[in-house]
Amino acid sequence: MFYLSKKTPTTVKENKRKHPVLRAFFTAFLAGLAVCSIVLAFHLESLCGKGNPCAPFFGGQGDDPSQSGGNTSGSGTVPANQTFEEYLNDTIFIGDSRTNGMANYGFVPRERVYAIDGANHQAARTQRFLILSSTGAKLTIAEAIGIVKPARMVVSFGINGVAFMGEETFMDEYAAFLDELKAASPDTILIVQSILPVSSSLEADDPRMANSIIDAYNQKLQALTLEKGGRWLDTAGLLKNSWGSLDAAYDAGDGLHFNQQAYETLVAYYDSNRFY
User: Fold this and answer.
1) C-alpha angle with apex 122: 251 to 105, nearest 5 degrees?
2) Digit-coded pLDDT (tens) for 100-125
3) Domain spans in the chain, listed from the N-terminal domain onward
4) What pTM was computed for the model?
5) Which CATH superfamily is domain 65-272 in?
6) In 3D, which of 202, 132, 122, 208 has the Cα closest to residue 169?
7) Interacting residues of 192 by C-beta distance below 8 A, sequence separation 6+
């Protein structure tokens, strides 16, 4: 304990000089305060990095698939042991009414399907029918892909082109469409599915859609896909009978569209043939 003289005022400078115990106390206090500040700052930083409310918030995108969770970067960093549901949620399915069946039967969320009934790959290059909540404007498929940038995209066009497009035009338009998709999102894995078969009764009614023509186009389409650096899904044979046409077990009734069993078969194939 120490006492200040009532007769002689003692300055702060003199206190520091005359009372080393007090000086040591203040030094220890300031050092402790500095350590606590560093620890607190580190703790807050770690919390913010883990989704703490102190982290910046930029708002959701509603039905924009890029905001729905999972890895949608297409960077190849998606773990190979992810669940199949997560795999599908990282994938955009592109095509026509046959692709819409994936959503109609509930195999994938509607926002994962970029398809319009009756469309072909030529018209798909300019048709604006997709609306993402992040933009509010109608977009083409390539424009939407450029915004969402999914891990992978499965392209399933063709059945609405074989009936009226010559082989050269068909392939040229398909090549241009694939180029536009790749340019919109270079890191997204490009997957092309083979053109699926039709029933024997349908090809008899419309020879332009004969399965022999579909098979010939598929050979060319596979070569084009590989040339563009894409992956090929050889799914056509899964739905064929021994005569090479659509098996009645998979026919929705019109010889062109598929029932739920057909999509179960296709989805099982996707699960066994994943691309990362």
Assistant:
1) 30
2) 999 999 999 999 999 999 999 999 99
3) 12-48, 65-272
4) 0.73
5) SGNH hydrolase (3.40.50.1110)
6) 122
7) 154, 155, 156, 178, 221, 222, 224, 225, 230, 231, 232, 233
